Amino acid sequence: MAAAAVLPGREPGMSPGDPGPRPGRAPARTAAPETGRPPAVTAPSPADERTPSGLRATARIRAAPDGRGGTALPVLSGAGPLALRRTRKQGPRATVTIVGAMSAPLGGDHLTLTAHAAPGAQLTVDSAAATLALPGPDGEPARYDVALSVEHGARMRWLPEPLISVRGSVLRQSIRVSLAPSARLVLRDEQVLGRTGEETGRVTSRITVHRAGRPLLEQQIDYGPGVPGWDSGAVLGEHRAVGQLLVVDPDFDGSPPPPRPLGDGASAAVTPLAGPAVLVTAVAPDALQLRRMLAGAGRFTTW
User: Disordered: where is this region (predicted)?
Assistant: First the structure.
């Protein structure tokens, strides 16, 4: 994939598997006051901390109505490799794009991103490129934790580009979602197992969704070296891309989409959940075909 060749923060000539330099954040300096005293030096932000085992970074997004029919972003705080940019506005919806400021996650890293939509807000979160899970120097696993919360009458679209599991990497990803009864959600989660012609790393991804305090979805996938049968015909077979599209919409109450295969083959399926939600699961030979299948399920979204 073209996105896999862009690794911000690396020196020219370094291979994608080389963790490269991981500079820490320099202390911030404030402007010198008029009294002539030297500028104060503040400690590095706790949201971006480099430890012997890897990088610790936390990014935060909060969306709220702006009082003029749109959505404001009172909190937009990136850290480490998670740089956040407000990229465009579409009617009442605000869009935040995650831009990789350095190669991450490497083995030993722990990245956290939280996104909160206050009552009535409309928020889309996407990313500028695919995320590469890379091996670290000590063989430690990396962690990437995402927490999403959507309050009454709010709408959130979580639509990042795929996660690519690079050979030798170990990543544990979790996505936790909390929804109010009238909240709406579109969540896309895609994994690509290895780059072109490359063996995959180990990836474990868990999605947990609660609506009105009650469980709506609990799902975990586990692929790669050390997982029995993951590449057998009973699981993925020859496929190396897998994804899910979750749509939660109160309009599904009483009339959810029926369960059925999606597309020409049996590599995608539509499953209504025990609630106003539908889950589309797909496997494909590569990321392009996977995205096409999940895009075809977009008609379940009416907002």
Answer: 1-54
The domain ranges of the chain are: 61-300
SS (H, E, C) the chain: CHHHHCCCCCCCCCCCCCCCCCCCCCCCECCCCCCCCCCCECCCCCCEEEECCEEEEEEEEEEEECCCCCEEEEEEECECCEEEEEEEEECCEEEEEEEECCCCCECCCEEEEEEEECCCCEEEEEECCCEEEECCCCCCCEEEEEEEEECCCCEEEEECCCEEECCCCEEEEEEEEEECCCCEEEEEEEEEECCCCCCCCEEEEEEEEEECCEEEEEEEEEECCCCCCCCCCCCCCCCCEEEEEEEECHHHCCCCCCCEECCCCCCEEEEECCCCEEEEEEEECCHHHHHHHHHHHHHHCCC
For the segment 250-263, the average pLDDT, to the nearest whole number, is: 84
Q: What is the pTM of this model?
A: 0.81
